[in-house]
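Support request, please re-run this one:
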Amino acid sequence: MYISPIYLHSQHKFFTYLDEVAEKDDDQSYQAKDTIKELLSDESGMMSFSLEKTGSIKLKDFDEKDVFIFDTKTEVFVFIGKDTSANESQFAMTYAHTYLMQTDHPLIPISCIIEQAIDAAFNFTSALAA
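Re-run finished. Output below.
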């Protein structure tokens, strides 16, 4: 499976789910307390998938060395840190799909967010402002 990086700007909907960004909430079913962040890591030598955090989730909660599955209940974001292993990157979407199929909302969209793309978009936007 090929995942094309999405070049993000600060107004991308990924950021609207994080608490430090002003949010326009037009979906009544969305509640910040419902957000879930799962960690996918092979740091131990074996792939592991575990609950990392629930509730209020901020951008600083994402580590560049791992993959995170960020579930807002209306969309799932697969955050691939810029220093993740090839194995973690390769299996990120598979784990996200498996995770989602075990929830009460298995048909919501999944978006892949690649940290390098966030950095590139920020650098590009900064250059335009100069």
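Helices lie at 13-16, 86-101, 115-129. The radius of gyration is 15 Å.
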